[in-house]
Structures are given as structure tokens and as C-alpha cells.
Specification:
By secondary structure, this protein is an alpha/beta fold. The chain has two domains: 337 residues, 3-Layer(aba) Sandwich (Rossmann fold); 181 residues, Helix Hairpins. The protein is 48% helix and 12% strand. The two termini are 38 Å apart.
Amino acid sequence: MKYGFTLRRLALTGPGRPAAELEFSRGINVIAGPSDTGKSFVLQCVDYALGGGDAPETIPEAEGYTLVVLEIESRAVDHHRYTLERSLQGGDILLRSAGERDRVLGAKHKSGSEDTLSRFLLDLSGLGGRKLRANAQGVTRELSFRKVAPLLVVDEEAVIKKLSPIWSGQRNDKTLESGVFRLLLTGIDDSSVVAKENPKIVRGRQQGKAEAIGNLLQKAREELVDVGDVTSLGEERERLVRVEAALHAATAERDAEQAHASPLESTRRAAWKRLRAVESKLNVLLELQQRFDLLQEQYESDLRRLEAVSEAGSRLGQLKETRCPTCGAVAEHHDNDHRAQPIADADVAQACEAEASKTNALLQDLQATRASTASDIEKLSAERDQRQTEFDVAAGELKAVLELRVDVASKKVDEVRERRDACKKAVEILERIYVFESLLTEAKAPLKRARAEGPSSIVSTAQAEPFSKAVESLLAAWHFPNLDRVTFSAKNQDVVISGRARISHGKGVRAITRAAFNLALLRHLADEERPFPNFVLIDSPLLVYEKPDPGEHEFPQDVKRYFWESVTAAFSDVQVIILENRRQLPDDGIAGANVVLFTGNDRGRRGFIPPAGGAV
């Protein structure tokens, strides 16, 4: 699968202004001319159309122009073309494409959003949705196109910068920028990285933890003062062991005394049971005796009543007949048919005597029973007194043993237990103090730099070995002097040429080796068919080389000739755009390249922007 896109046309338009246009092709494109003809302005316009944050510099020739138009072509099978339009005043980008509706794309990357220029260009390049580690703690961010752009668009200042080509110089972005380079070389992003907490948050929590522990430590020390005389934790632990042993001995002594008192307790319990049994029988008989007393009173009452009835009957017979107390009629005038045969007074007296005789018999039986019960009560009372005496004796003996021996042993157990509890409390507080002091020391200790779990963003020498070989091959094709071997420094994230760091050379050599770095990356990724935009735009890689720094006079000028021959032959399947001074081009031209010459005068094309009222 082919990734990336090709720049096809750049235009600058404005009301009433002639269009300033450049056509690009696949392979090598060279825009050459003297200073002040708009070469660097072309690079700024391309970078701006690709989402750059800074608008092109304000130059007199660009007055009246309002819109940058960049046409690109997908390298996929369909070679679909898109037009990007962006106002020079800033704002979002309008995306136009034949057969599709126009879309407005945000100029700034927004994670998770597909309506941004960054996501659109990354999707064309096969890099959409990739995540990269942003710092050592493993916080990840979605890749934006602007993090890839420095490897594509190299201006005249960046080409000589004394810094790795993958770094912008912003310290906080080093991890992310190294991750971009590693992603391009290996195809591995940081989606699997497990992030660590932000050190500031951890530090704030640690300070709060230290304060809380300090408060707990102070309270523990105040509690220790209340305990009393306390030594060190080790001594208190030893003392606790001794007190525990003493408590064990005292408990055993108390248990032995309680065992000694156990037979007395059994005797007292048996005496108590016998006493309760006698008292229970006695109470039953006393209750019966009370009932017998009541029954005797009832019999005596019945006898008195019968005697009264018998006497009343004889007295009534002696009374003369009188008028009815109710109606006043004499007895002879009353209707007595309903009245039964009158009972004789002698019969009433005889009946009462018979009933009295029966009641007297019952009374005599009751008195005999009461006498027998009274005898039993007397015997049980005597037995109760005996059982009470036995119980009192057993209880007294038990009490004497408990008070003299068991209670003393129990008090000793209680005293030793109190000492044990006080000692345990002292040990517990001292242990808490020890733990709090350890935690406080730990909380106040300097934080160790947290490293996230997952692969490092730093590109290792081994990972960059195929890329280093590509740089070496390119420099060899350029006849770079004294070339031995090219390796990669994991520390500087830059190539080391013949044992010497690239950035240690002068500006001229740094410029041409920077071009080698970017072009070799393009060639290597294209050969490996890895996701990449697959074009490079470099401003003035050879101009500074014309005037080498002191000590670098041994670098031959024919490197430039071999540079053009090699680039033309090796990059026909991708796109390379070189902005260079006219003097750096071979006199016989560059065969197979799309060359645009700015003359700076009226002969030929003056520059990128045509004169007012003129044509290109």
C-alpha cells in the first residue's frame, strides 16, 4: 500500500491580483534563484497551508493577496486530488475535492476529531489515530501532523541548527518528538503505555500525607505522655513479655484456689438443696393447716346456725296468730290452698340435731387431721432448722476460703492485668509512633522520577541501524569526504558520521548532512513502505556549504555535483523539493528534474509573485 501525498500546485490569490502559482511534480523539484525572489516565502506558504501556526512573512510583493491554495494528490491507487484553501489572516482550512462536498477543517489538531486538517493529512499518510508518549510519566497524546512536519519541511534556519533534526528545541516536547521518529522507523506507537501520575499531583498528595501523618504523630506522642513512665519500644516489649508471664502465673494461682474451694461449694450446694426441700414440704403443710383452720371455723359456724334454727322453731310455735303485716287480714281470711302441709316444730328441731350430729363428726375428723399436720409441721420445722445450720456452716467455710485465698488471688490477677493493659497500650502507642515516624520520613523523601510502563520513546542505536545505513549510502553517493561509517546516537538522537557527531561540524556541513538525514529518512520509509507523507521540502541545503567554517576547508565542492546526481536518480518515486540559490545548481542543468528558475529581473520569471499588472 502506498502512503502519503504529493504536492501538485501552490497558488497565492487575491482580488485584482495576478495569481502567483507553482507546479510541482513527482520526483525532484528545484526552485532556484537569487535572494529576495520568494523562495523562502514559497516554503512558508506550503507550511502554512499544511496547518502551520505562523502565516507567511509580510513582504511588499504579497500585498493584496489574501488566500493560499495548495493542491495535493493522494499516492493511493486512485491518485485523488484535494485542494486546501486558507486565508492569510488565519482561521480554518477549506477542503475541496471533485465529486465531494466542501469541508471545513480545523487548523489545530483536536484529539478524537476527524474534522481537522491534521487528521486528514495523517490519514492520507497512514498515521491517523496514533498515540505517542508526551512525557516520562507516560501521558499519551494523539499524534498531530505538526509533529511530523519538521521532518518534511526544513527552512533555511532549521537546516543549519545545531540540534537533532527530530527535536524542535522545546525541552517539554523531546519525549513526544523522539516518539514520532521511533513511530516512523518501527511502526510502533504508545497506545499500550500505562501512564504514571503527574509528579506535581503526587508531590501535592505527598505533602498532604506528610501533614496528616505529622498530626497523627503529635497526637500519639500526647497519648504516650498520659500513659506515664515509658521507656523505649524494645524495653516496653520486653516488659510486656514479663507482665504477660506474671499474669499467666497469677491466673494459674487463682484457678488453683478456685479448684480448692470447689468441694466446699459442692457441700454448700447440697446443703442448700436439702434445706430447700424441707422448706418446700413445710410450706405445703403450713398452707394445709391454714385451710384446715378455715374449715374448722366453717363447721363451728354451721353448728351455731343449726342450734339457732332449732331454738327459733320452738319459740315460733309459742306465738299467737296475728294479722298479715302486709294486707292486715287475719290469717283465716288468707288463701292457704297453695301452702304445703305445715311442719311440726319438733320435726325441725330433730332435723337440726341430726345435721349438727353429722357436722360434729366431721369436725372431730378435722381436728384429728389438724393435730397430725401440726405434728408434721413441728418435725419439719426442727429439720429445717437443722438443714439451715448445715447450710450456714458450709457457706461460712466457703466464704472464709474465698475471702482469704481466692479473692486475694483474683485481686492479684486484676492488678497484673491492669499492668498488662497499660504496658500493651504503651507498646501500641510506641509502635504507632514508630510507624508514623517511618511514614513521615518516607513522605518527606525526594520523589523518585516516575517512569511509565511501556517502550521508551528514545530511538536506540539498534532500532536506527537500517536508517543509519540509508544515511551512509546517501553520503557515499555524494562523495562525502573521509566517510567511514554512519551510526546513530541514542543520547543525541542524531547520526554520528565517521565517529563524529553531526552537530559538531560547521554550518555548511550541518546543512548538507541535515539534508542527508531528511532525505535518507524519506528513502528508507518509502523502501520499507511505512506510513509517511512521502515528500520533503528543504530550503538552501547547499548555500552555506559554499563558505565552510574555519577548519573545514578540506570538504570538496564537488559534493554538490554528486548531490544533484544522486538525488535525481534515487528519489524519482517520491517527491523532493529543493529551494536553492542559482549558483548551487550545475551549469549544465539537472536532467530529469522539474526546475523553476527565478531571475530577480525582467528576463524570465522574476520570482514567485509576479509584478503588479504582470504575468508569470
